[in-house]
Structures are given as C-alpha cells and as structure tokens.
Amino acid sequence: MDDDTLFMLVRGTSLDSASDFFIDADNNGSTGFHSYLWPGSGIDYLIENGNIYEYTGDGSSWSWTYLSDNTTEIKTNTIVEISLPLSAIGLSEPREIKISYQRAFTDNAPVPGNAMVTLYPYG
C-alpha cells in the first residue's frame, strides 16, 4: 500500500482460474459480509477477476453491487497480482485493513477458521 494504491499478490499453482480478494476496508467485523470462512470478518468489498463490488446486504446475504473495473490485474498459472486506487474501496489515505483470498471458490487464504490477514500502512 502506498499513498493512494493498494497492491495484493498471491503466489501458488493453478491461479489462472477465478480469483476473489475480500477486503474489510473499515476494519470493523460488525459491518459488511460475515463469512463463515473467516471468523470476525466484516467484508466491505469484493475484487473478483478485476471487478470491484461493494457489499450491500444485511451481513449474511450474498449481495454485491458492481462499482468499477478500476484495477490493474496480472494473472498467470503461478501468480495473481492486482492493484487498485484506495479511493475505489472508500479510503482517502492508507490505513489498517483486512484481506483474504479465494481461488476457484475452493482454496482460501487464510485457511478457513483463521482471521483475515491484517495489512498495515507503510511506515
């Protein structure tokens, strides 16, 4: 994360299929989508195959609204790298957020049952 951009990178195998990044942008587990995969999650944004979606449900329903495709994505069999403006996820400056990743709707990072990964601004 720099002053205005979020960067995310995943390395592995068979990564050239569906890729979902989940972002808890307000770092608040009581808002957003509450995934059974990651306890305490409050997912506000979904980045799916380069498209940005905002959560619009009641916490348990799967309800997302398309916002934009304002991302840069590089995807190969062994790497997925994506960058997007912080403003695309409601942030005006770098701040602590949480993220998780899902490949092909089956492989997850972190492993289900663990909390989402916390990202801290540089510095």
Shape: globular
Number of strands: 10
Helix/strand order, N-terminal first: EEEEEEEEEE
Main beta sheet: 7 strands, antiparallel
Query: Mean of residue pLDDT?
Result: 94
**β-strand amount:** 35-45%
Task: Please give the share of residues in helix.
Answer: under 10%
Low-confidence stretches: none
Look at the helices and sheets and give the structural class. mainly beta
Number of helices: 0
* Radius of gyration (Å): 13 Å
**Distance N terminus to C terminus?**
10 Å
What is the fold's blueprint, element by element?
Layout: E1 5-11, E2 19-24, E3 45-48, E4 51-55, E5 64-68, E6 72-75, E7 79-85, E8 97-103, E9 107-109, E10 117-119
Antiparallel strand pairs: 1-7, 2-3, 2-8, 3-4, 4-5, 6-7, 8-9, 8-10
Give a nutshell description of this structure.
This protein is mainly β and 123 residues long. It is built from no helices and ten strands. Strands 2, 3, 4, 5, 8, 9 and 10 form a seven-stranded antiparallel beta sheet that branches.
Q: How would you portray this structure in words?
A:
Helix content is 0%, strand content 41%. With 123 residues, it is mostly beta strands. It starts with a strand and ends with a strand.
Descriptive tags:
single chain, 7-stranded antiparallel β-sheet, 10 strands, mainly beta, 123 residues, 41% strand
